Prior knowledge:
- By secondary structure, this protein is α+β, with helices and mostly antiparallel strands.
- The chain has a single domain (4-174), classed as Aminopeptidase (3-Layer(aba) Sandwich), CATH 3.40.630.
- The protein is 20% helix and 38% strand.
- The protein is built from three helices and eleven strands; from the N terminus they run βαββββαβαβββββ.
- It has helices at residues 16-29, 98-114, 128-132; strands spanning 4-10, 51-57, 60-67, 69-74, 77-89, 118-123, 137-140, 143-147, 150-154, 157-162, 173-174.
- Strand 5, helix 2 (98-114) and strand 6 form a beta-alpha-beta unit.
- The longest helix is centred in the middle third of the chain and has 17 residues, at 98-114.
- The N and C termini lie far apart (34 Å).
Amino acid sequence: MTSFHVRFVTKNEIDPDLQKEIDALDKLAFAGESAEDEPELAGISWASGDWMGLGFLGKELATQLSIPKRHISAGEKKVWVAGLGGMATHPKYQHQGLGSELLRATRDFMQAEIKTPFGLLICADKTRPFYERSGWKLVADELYFVQDDHKRVLHTSVMALQLEDQAWPSGKIDLCGSPW
């Protein structure tokens, strides 16, 4: 049986061949999503991460996600978060627990290496149960972000993962930049 392992790398550590694999997995995983399906997402420029979490079966890239670190506003507080974005699993490996394994490893990486009090992600309602099974909690159904010098609102599931012993602050969430 081929073993599953996870690597966390910075953008600078990604060589052109690995970038091609990442781009191909993105294309496969997000194929069929269009502005007609999610008009609110049309025209958004997504933030890139500071790290990538990559899950391999042997030498094959099976699942991935991006992790930006950013100061955001939650209510009246500034909060450091490790974002989680662009999670994708190759269709032939979906529903085998690999994405959940990557999320567990990512939680540990966020706590040990990034050292933020929270993880934060946005997702469609249909994928919320997947993240909830890994300990993520719904904290809002909209958030604000800045794009092209304009503040915009996105109506979606906003989920946080508690990484330290403190509660998520209540109030409006502003990503203070592009979403991930």
